[in-house]
Design a protein that fits this description.
4-stranded antiparallel β-sheet; N-terminal domain of MutM-like DNA repair proteins; about 350 residues; 2 domains; about 25% helix; Helicase, Ruva Protein, domain 3
């Protein structure tokens, strides 16, 4: 499931591609035909993200949004993009890859933008729930968990059920300070494990399994510790760390949580796997199992093997203390942690 930084990147790209344009909105699959009819021909104003929720603003007669397309990608949802010769957008799963330096980000289409109305998008591929067609680009949505048209009042009601979002400028509250206080208060009023609460979108919006594992490691907090037992100052520092990490993810399209002094992928060995014990390099089969980021081929990017402290590093030595990283389960989700660093 995409984490919050991915959804913010999607919102930014949809705004860049379609803002101020009257869009053709359809449902090639047919499951969203009624909703598409409500939006077809309306002007797309902008897209917004709150945690893992994406909202697209549409209007026919007013400069203010009259209707909103709400999308939650869930486990299987994805947006795919295409454009004319002058549009820097490519096929993408879960999130667009538009940053220069990502290997497949900006193809050379060999020409200027088409005149509005002259460009023909390719035929939809797969079960496309929603298709947005603008002057120079097309966006197709497949497999979302949620896809519906809301009024502004209904959108506000959805947002009211969400926790603060570390990526939003104000955290989704009147200020980041208020957002931090709201987060700390919510965690400390419950005996539920802090690791479980971080995945609760009503506590903090946008955090997924990667950010959960990494921010708890960086804070030195046991994920199984009851929320009410975690000091307020530690939770406030954890919130501030989420703001930095998740905003960096939204800006770059990659998640990197390790500090430079803790990056040394060449010395990792997966417990129980055959590898070169002299150099410490893991076996090829184990390496294939590890998380791959879409910037691994960028020589200027931190590779996935060096990007995380705990996530998908079970059995590998902790980057800080050397003990094997643990793997477990909490509320149906895989949990990664260090038993020594996170006491």
């Amino acid at each position: 499931m995409p984490e919050g930084h991915t959804v913010h990147r999607l919102a930014r790209t949809l705004t860049e591609l379609f803002a101020t344009q009257r869009l053709q909105v359809s449902s090639p699959q047919g499951r969203f035909a009624a909703g598409a009819l409500l939006l077809d021909g309306a002007t797309f104003l902008r897209a917004e993200a709150w945690g893992k929720q994406l909202f697209g603003a549409f209007s026919r007669t007013s400069p203010e949004p009259e209707q909103w397309l709400r999308v939650h990608l869930g486990l299987y949802g994805a947006w795919t993009f295409d454009g004319d010769a002058g549009t820097d957008v490519v096929h993408a799963i879960g999130a667009p890859r538009r940053r220069i330096g990502e290997r497949d980000s900006v193809p050379d289409r060999g020409g200027p933008p088409a005149t509005a109305g002259e460009w023909s998008p390719p035929a939809p591929r797969g079960a496309v729930r929603v298709r947005l067609v603008g002057d120079h680009a097309v966006a197709d949505l497949t497999g979302p968990t949620a896809c519906e048209v809301l009024t502004t009042a209904e959108k506000t009601a959805v947002e009211a059920r969400l926790g603060p979002d570390p990526i939003r400028p104000d955290g989704g509250c009147s200020s980041l300070e208020v957002a931090r206080e709201r987060f700390v208060t919510r965690v400390r009023r419950s005996r539920v494990a802090v690791g479980q609460q971080l995945m609760d979108q009503a506590v903090v919006a946008g955090v997924g399994n990667i950010y959960r594992a990494e921010v708890l490691f960086r804070a030195g907090i046991d994920p199984l510790r009851p929320g009410r037992d975690v000091p307020g100052a530690a939770l406030a520092a954890l919130w501030d760390d989420l703001v930095v990490l998740m905003r960096d993810g939204a800006a770059t399209g990659r998640i990197v949580t390790t500090r430079p002094e803790h990056r040394d992928a060449a010395h990792e060995v997966v417990s129980g796997d055959a590898g070169d014990r002299t150099t410490g390099r893991a076996a090829t089969g184990a390496a294939r199992r590890r998380t791959r980021q879409n910037t691994d081929d960028d020589p200027d990017a931190v590779p996935a093997a060096d990007a995380f402290y705990a996530y998908h590093r079970d059995g590998l030595p902790c980057r800080v203390c050397g003990t094997p990283v643990l793997v477990g389960e909490l509320a149906g989700r895989t949990l990664f942690s260090c038993g020594r660093c996170q006491r």
